[in-house]
Amino acid sequence: MECSLEFDAGEKLRVYASAGVPVYWILNLVNRRIEIHSDPESGGYQSRQDLALGDQVTVDVAGNEVGRITIGNLLP
Question: In terms of residue numbers, what domain contains 51?
């Protein structure tokens, strides 16, 4: 059985991009980071941002910033 990371960064990412999901996050527990994929095109995303434990990410809902999360608070 393949690990979740392989599935999330492979087939699932391609399906989400093809469906036009604007932003796709992967909680990468193996490397203890968050991968944020954006700007979907058929079969993939054009942008990727990797954030480490001390970094913060802005949470937007419908184009409005609703808060910030420290990456270390999302990972075990």
Answer: 4-73
Q: What is the pLDDT of residue 72?
A: 92
Give this prediction's pTM. Answer: 0.86
Q: Which amino acid is at 51?
A: L
**Residues near 4 by Cβ (< 8 Å), separated by ≥ 6?**
none
Please list the ranges in the chain whose pLDDT falls under 70.
Answer: 1-2
SS (H, E, C) 11-47: HHHHHHHHCCCCEEEEEECCCCEEEEEEEEECCEEEE
- 15-44 core/surface letters (b: 16 or more CB in 10 A; e: else): ebbeeeeeebebebeeeebbbbbeebeeee
In 3D space, the residue among 47, 48, 58 whose CA is nearest the CA of residue 28 turns out to be 48
User: What pLDDT does residue 2 have?
Assistant: 53
Q: How many domains does the chain have?
A: 1
